[in-house]
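Inputs:
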Amino acid sequence: MDSTGERRGGVTPYLELRAATRDRDRSLRDKVMSLEEAAKLVSDGEHVSLGGCTASRTPFAMIWALIRRGVKDLAVSRSIISTEGDLLFASGASRHIMTSWFSQGIVWGVSKVMRAHTESGRARFEEWSHMAMGLRYKAGAMGVPFMPMRSMLGSGVLDRAEGARTMECPFTGETLLLVPALNPDVALIHVQRCDAYGNAQLDGLTFMDVDMAMAAKRVILTTERIVSNEQIRRAPDQTKIGFFTVDAVVEVPFGSAPHECYGIYEPFYGHMDLYAAMTAKDPDAGAKAYLERFYHEPKNWAAYLERIGMAELLDARRRGSSIYDD
Amino acid sequence: MTTETANAPDAAAYTGSELLAVMSARLLADGQTVFAGVGIPLLAAILAQRTRAPGLTILFEGGVIGPFVEPGKLPPSTNEQRCARRANMLVSITDVLLMLQRGYVDVGFMGGAQIDRYGNLNSSFIGDAERPKIRLPGTGGGNDIASLAEMIVAMKHEKRRFVEKVDFITSPGFLDGGTSRRDAGLPAGGMFRVVTDLGILGFDAETRAMTVLALHPGVSAETIKAKTGFPLPVPADVPVTMPPTDHELGILRELDPERLYTA
């Protein structure tokens, strides 16, 4: 990074950000394409942000397609990164992840793959507080270079956070933390439903996705199903991500598997146990074997789901829909 | 299990994690709003809700306000749909964390991997951060919660976890003690209680150093001192906690029948 970039904390200059937006085709047009076509919209070395959080609405189908394509050296950001962080490191798709927490989930303990890559210095886990990640996307969404906040102060997390600055508040004289805006090159977000133009309706927890879509320079949506624009227009209050931010729409049922998609399926716990077991003893060899078996060998997304197994899928589906039982 | 609890009359009746959950739950009061992490904090908050604090409002960092988690369906993190069951409101992660900053949260409640005399918590690195012996998962919402709310921390009491100085401050306690927390720009919140399988600890109002407030049945002052990596004052007349009741343990086991968090 040059000296200007250093001073900017990696923040995209405002007019550059606006120019990138101005030059996009933001019209109400059909953006439906295949996973493979959408994967070509991401280039090596770009900053890719992932929607969802931990084991929820992880854009797994898109990550799967990117890893299969052999994409390299992505900088990846997410609120909390789970299984997919391991696989991005293990596949070489990324060597730099910005997040607040990194492991498959507390139930499975500390990720052995994350440990193997970070402790050896092969990859970098850049830690920010959860709220800092949220406000960094928020600043990006608002078109301002930073947001002020009151946590992270006094901590080791602040000492290591690149680009964060403290300041004396001009109104009160208090010490505040300023966190730099994140404007990802591409946001990958998985949703329950959207139309062909990219109007997305989210059920349940929205995590940081709405700000992330506004902050990003491009957005690729994967969706459980594509609905008509008429259906979207019947309940526009449910539309959380607007078509004008979206560049690609891919219909991928079970596109978050083995993680959950609110109201449709819960995490595939058996498969997540299997992944943890495969990577427990020898994380490098285990992750390689996992990628081979579940990422490279299946010929398409349906074949990937077949490998995970119909019993797993049906169980996750049954648990997922049970949220509407009472 | 420690020798002390093994000698206690009801020792075989509960695990160390169950003891943590019960003792933590008793610190929550009806009407409070508590920001709970997953694991023991979640379990303790639900236990409190079903016993002494039916009007307790639980917040999860996934963006959930006031849910009723279903027994036997504990979430694996605070970000799955199980957390959202019968909630009053769902918001974004950023918005629920901003509730901490705005002052709507009475108690922050989480677990810890390593803690020091001033209540600073480490969940990031064991060893030097540049070349860590172990890279831990990191802060999550921990830093935000500890920066902005009165904190209850529930953790196992071991010498390697209770250290003079943490390897890395992930979530701030009272930093270097005295007024250093406030001076760093953290005027609100701070460590309130640390609940362990040996006792209940608090912090001196002036020095902000950890002290013992109560010991669990069968635990001696010598034991808790020996299992702490810094000088820990124990008052001569230190009270002894009431052991977990069958009622409390029954609820915990109904909530977590597979012993995900209470093994």
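The longest strand of chain A covers residues 186-194. Flag for discussion at group meeting.
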